[in-house]
């Protein structure tokens, strides 16, 4: 794992082009030499957990903001990301994102411009990626699953802006952990009513009506376009914690 404070390019990992550490762990096809290195990889994984725990332990109350990596600054979701990042910072929260472009950059921008703490938990990808310019403290992870645990452990709630597969993964992971009581009092706010309504309707019409989920599962989600409502929910959860 690499670490930096302030903007700048990610350090080079000296890895084969087009391959990531996660991929070399998970993709077991091909040369069996990789298999024999798995026990040693555990030490790398362990090191990422140790460094993450060490570097994030003093963060204070934080909210993670997720959303599409692919939207430009002109997109309305980007503007919403800036607003929610700023409002969360104004309310005293550290804002944590994946440190990438799009909605992540927007939330980091809002937090930084409001004078708040703006954290980016980046991930090694097959192409050269860098933490966005609005991250004031950043960590770069090799392993997705280690990084995902850091979001859950060091934030008190999630704000989920319109996004794609990565965003859905983050949202459903939080729902799964809440449903199974691995995390408690963890607000999940979906911002962007138009974007999310279709998914919620499908969950009601299919998952709920087929008894694959309960109404209480859907109640974990708050759907809104209202930044003040989103922040108020996070503040209420923080107050309940205190
Ligand atoms: C697509 C491009 C770069 C991607 N870079 C990312 N950096 C950090 N985190 C990322 C990146 N891509 C996805 N994520 C995580 O998933 C969520 C967004 O995924 P989606 O599929 O776009 O919804 C996001 O919250 C991140 O945590 C090239 O510009």
Automatic annotation (TrEMBL):
Coiled coil: none annotated. InterPro entries: LOG (IPR005269), LOG_fam (IPR031100), LOG_family_nucleotidases (IPR052341). Pfam families: Lysine_decarbox. Keywords: Cytokinin biosynthesis, Hydrolase. Residues 1-31 are annotated as: Disordered. Signal peptide: none annotated. It catalyses: N(6)-(dimethylallyl)adenosine 5'-phosphate + H2O = N(6)-dimethylallyladenine + D-ribose 5-phosphate; 9-ribosyl-trans-zeatin 5'-phosphate + H2O = trans-zeatin + D-ribose 5-phosphate. It is an enzyme of class 3 (hydrolase). The keyword Hydrolase applies. Its EC number is 3.2.2.n1. PANTHER family: CYTOKININ RIBOSIDE 5'-MONOPHOSPHATE PHOSPHORIBOHYDROLASE. Belongs to the LOG family. This is Cytokinin riboside 5'-monophosphate phosphoribohydrolase. It comes from Nocardioides bizhenqiangii.
């Amino acid at each position: 794992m690499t670490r930096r404070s302030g903007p700048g390019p990610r350090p080079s990992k000296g890895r084969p082009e087009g391959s990531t550490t996660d991929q070399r762990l998970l993709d077991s096809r091909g040369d069996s030499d990789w298999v024999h290195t798995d026990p040693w990889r555990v030490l790398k994984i362990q090191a990422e957990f140790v460094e993450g725990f060490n570097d994030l332990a003093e963060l204070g109350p934080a909210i993670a903001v997720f959303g599409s990596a692919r939207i430009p600054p002109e997109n309305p979701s980007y503007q919403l990301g800036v607003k929610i990042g700023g409002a969360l910072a104004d309310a005293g929260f550290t804002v944590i994102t994946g440190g990438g472009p799009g909605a992540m950059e927007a939330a980091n921008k809002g937090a930084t411009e409001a004078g708040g703490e703006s954290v980016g938990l980046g991930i090694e990808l097959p192409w050269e990626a860098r933490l966005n310019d609005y991250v004031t403290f950043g960590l770069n992870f090799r392993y997705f699953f280690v990084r995902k645990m850091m979001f859950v452990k060091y934030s008190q709630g999630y704000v989920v802006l319109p996004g794609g597969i990565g965003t859905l993964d983050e949202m459903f992971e939080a729902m799964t952990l809440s449903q199974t009581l691995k995390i408690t009092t963890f607000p999940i706010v979906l911002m962007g009513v138009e974007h999310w309504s279709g998914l919620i309707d499908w969950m009601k019409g299919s998952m709920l009506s087929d008894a694959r989920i309960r109404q209480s599962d859907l109640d974990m989600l708050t759907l809104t376009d209202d930044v003040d409502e989103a922040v108020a929910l996070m503040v209420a959860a923080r107050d309940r914690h205190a």
